[in-house]
From TrEMBL:
Broad class of the protein's primary localization: membrane
Superkingdom of source: Eukaryota
Gene3D superfamilies named among the record's database cross-references: Porin
UniProt family annotation: Belongs to the eukaryotic mitochondrial porin (TC 1.B.8.1) family.
Protein's organism: Punica granatum
GO CC terms: mitochondrial outer membrane; pore complex
Protein name as it appears in the record: Uncharacterized protein
Keywords of this entry: Ion transport, Membrane, Porin, Transmembrane, Transmembrane beta strand, Transport
PROSITE patterns to which the protein is assigned, alphabetical: EUKARYOTIC_PORIN (PS00558)
GO biological process, one term: response to bacterium
InterPro entries membership: Porin_dom_sf, Porin_Euk, Porin_Euk/Tom40
The keyword Phosphoprotein is assigned to this record: no
Intracellular or extracellular location(s): Membrane
GO molecular function: porin activity; voltage-gated monoatomic anion channel activity
Amino acid sequence: MNTGPGLFSDVGKKARDLLTANYTTDKKFSVNTCSVDNGVVLTSTALKSGGLSTAAVAAKYIYKNSLIDVMVDTESNVLTTVTLTEIFPSTKGIASFKFPDCSSGKMEVQYFHDHATFTTSVALRQSPLINISATVGTPSMAFGAEVGYDTNSGTLTKYSAGVSAQKSDAYASIILGDKGDSIRASYVHHVDKLKKSAAAGEVMRKFSTNENIVTVGGQYTIDPLTVVKGKLNNYGTLGAVLQHEIIPKSLLTISTEVNTKALERTPKFGLSIALVP
């Protein structure tokens, strides 16, 4: 795949990753057997979210330009995802199927160009949902939009538009979403040349409810093995994450969430251990 403006889903992704990734109150444990360029990767995962516990086993097979990912959970759901790259020049195809809920299957095609990307996905059911997105521009400046259409009701299920701009040490984006009912602006700035530390801010306005959500956060790399992150919004929700590489490629992540406007409430904690032998 060549370099270009990226997918529409990439607009605002850097801020979302810094402000949301690994901020969780779940307990998760996963083990990978190995990671190879061409071969099989097995992953076992146990997750406790609230009062519910689930477990899953996933197998990933990689061969040349194809990837087959199969996951089975404790509720007997089988999710299979097949990804093919370069089936046509600069094109990627993704097919996903879930058993026994076969109606959740989806086919997606992504096309990449130096100055544009295009994706279309179709739900595999009698009256499918169709989603189309496109971006134009360059890696440093991109404009994009997406539309969802329900063939059964003949209505638009969503439409959004966004713009992003970036340079070596900063990234900014604005997204008009929720059928024009919300606008979200975000900014990420790397405060050192090695990009080990960064600060981010996001402002979201919901027009129908006159609600404003302002979130600020940051990330700091203590050493090559340890990263800390923190965020705070205007509702007083304070989150923190500590991630440490205990052995090569194996991560221990501890997260917490506190409501600073109601300190009498018990803080929430999350724990994730991902082992790669």
